[in-house]
Amino acid sequence: MGNSTGLRRKVKAMHRRSREWKMIAKALVSTDHPILAHLIPMRRCNLDCAYCNEYDKTSNPVPLETMFRRVDKLAELGTTIVTISGGEPLLHPELDDIIRRVRSRGVISGMITNGYLLTADRIQRLNRAGLEHMQISIDNVKPDDVSKKSLKTLDKKLQLLAKHAEFHVNINSVVGGGIHDPHDAMVVGNRAVELGFTSTVGIIHNGDGQLMPLGETEREVYHAMKAMEKGSYARINGFQDNIAAGRPNDWRCRAGARYLYVCEDGLVHYCSQQRGYPAKPLEQYNVEDIRREYVTEKSCAPHCTVSCVHQVSVLDRWRGPQKKTVTPSPAEDGELVQIQ
Question: Can you give the pTM of this predicted structure?
Answer without folding.
Answer: 0.87
